[in-house]
Amino acid sequence: MTTELEPLGPETARQMYLDERRHELADATLQSHDYRLKQFVQWCENEEIDNLNDFSARDIHRFRVKRRNEDELATASMKGQLATLRVFLRFCVSIDAVQAGLDEKIILPTTTADDARDELLSRDRAQKILDHLERYRYARLEHALLEVLWHTGFRIGAATGIDVEDYRSDDQYLALVHRPDEGTSLKNGSKSERLVALNDRVCLVLDDWLEVNHPEVVDDHGRTPLFATKRSRLSRNRGRTIAYQYTRPCIYENKCPHDRDIAECEARPTEYAHKCPSALSPHPVRRGSITHHLQSDTPERIVSDRMDVGMDVLERHYDQRSAREKLEQRRQYLPDG
Questions:
Q1: Residue 228, SS3 per DSSP
Q2: When you count CB atoms within 10 A of the terminal residue's CB, does the N or C end of the chain come out lower?
Q3: What is the distance between the alpha carbons of residues 2 and 96, in angstroms, rounded to a whole number?
C-alpha cells in the first residue's frame, strides 16, 4: 500500500463524491451515480473491503465479473456502471484514497445499437397493463402515472416534477417547467421546457385522479404536485417501484412466463418487484412509447420534440423499426406523379 494514501471507507468516499458533484450534475444524473455507487459499496461490504487504500485492479475485475455474471447486467448497463466507477475512482485519486492511475485500469465495454435498446415495453403489453389498472386501480396514483408515462414518453424525473397547475384539462396538455431551485429539474435544463399534448383518455384519467383520489398535499416548496402520495410529491424512486410493480406479468395476466410459483416468488412483494426478470423500470416504458409513436407514423421530428430527445439519440437508442417498416412509412409521403 502506498504510504501517501489516507485511509477512507467506501461509504464515506461515496458521500464525499456525491457532495462534490452535487452542483455539477443534473439531479437525474446524480441519482444514477448514487444508485450505481450503492451497488459498489454493497459489494465492498460483502468482500470486507473497508479501506479503499487497498483497492486494486484485481478488485475492479472481480466487481466487474460479479455485476456481469451474477447480476446479469446488460452491456449498456454495465458500461454505465463502470463509467460511474471510473469517475468515482478518479475523484478518490484526487483525495489520496486510492493509488494514482487506478481509474485508468477500467476499460468500458463497447456497446452496439442493439445493446442500447434491448429493453422496451411493447404496445400490446402496455395495453394489458393499462387495461388492468383501469379495471382494478382506476384513477389511482399508479394508473394516472403509467397512463402519462406511456402516452408521453416522459422521463420519470420530468413526470414527478409536474404540478397540478401545469395540467390544462380544457386545452388537454401538460407543461414541463425546469425548476432546479425547487428540486424538480429537467434533464436538459430550460431546453427541456415544452407543452405536451394529451388525448381524451389520459385527460379523463387525470381529471378523475384529481377529483376523487388526489391527496391534495403540498411539497416542501409550497407547490401541489400532480403525482403525489399522502405525504408529499411522488419521488423518483417510488415512481420506479410503481413501474416495476405493474410490469410484472403475474400482476396483469396472473401467470408467470418464468415458471415460478407466484405465491412463493421472491419478486412477489412490492419492495422486491425489481427482481422479476420481466419487470421494467420507467426507461423501457419511455423507450417503448417512443418506438410506438414511430411505428404509428408519427414524424421523427415530432417525436424528437415531444419526447425531448435528439434526432441522433432517437435513431441510436429508441428507433426499433425495421428497414422495411421505415421504407413503407416513407412511401406514403411520395408524390403521385
A1: strand
A2: C
A3: 10
The confidence score (pLDDT) of residue 29 equals 79
8 Å CB contact between 186 and 193: yes
CA dist., res. 337 & res. 324, Å (int): 23
Distance CA(143)–CA(202), nearest Å, equals 10
pTM above 0.85, yes or no: no
257's enclosing H/E stretch is none
Do residues 76 and 116 touch, judged by C-beta distance below 8 A? yes
Domain ranges of the chain: 10-111, 123-283
Q: Which amino acid is at 277?
A: P
Alpha-carbon distance 192 to 187, whole Å? 7
Instruction: State the distance between the two ends of the chain, measured CA to CA, in whole angstroms.
Output: 77
Torsion of CA 109, 114, 116, 119, to 10 degrees: -120
* C-beta separation of 92 from 52 below 8 A: yes
d(CA 16, CA 14): 5
Domain 123-283 has CATH 3.40.50.720: no
Residue 236: which of 136, 125, 155 has the closest Cα? 155
Q: Which three three-digit cell numbers place residue 137?
A: 386501480
Q: Do domains 10-111 and 123-283 have the same CATH topology?
A: no
Treating both helix axes as pointing N-terminal to C-terminal, what angle do 27-46 and 75-94 enclose, rounded to 10 degrees? 80
144 touches 205 (CB < 8 A): yes
pLDDT digits (tens, 9 = 90+) for 301-328: 888 889 888 887 777 666 666 667 666 6
> Torsion angle of alpha carbons 334, 303, 205, 126, nearest 10°?
90
Q: Measured between alpha carbons, how far is 72 from 332 in angstroms, rounded to an integer?
A: 42
| CATH, domain range 10-111 | 1.10.150.130
In the block, residue with C-alpha cell 481509474: 103
Distance CA 323, CA 219 (A): 47
Q: Which residues of the chain carry a pLDDT beneath 70?
A: 1-3, 72, 110-118, 316-323, 325-337
Q: Where are the beta strands (DSSP E) in 41-197?
A: 167-168, 173-176, 194-197
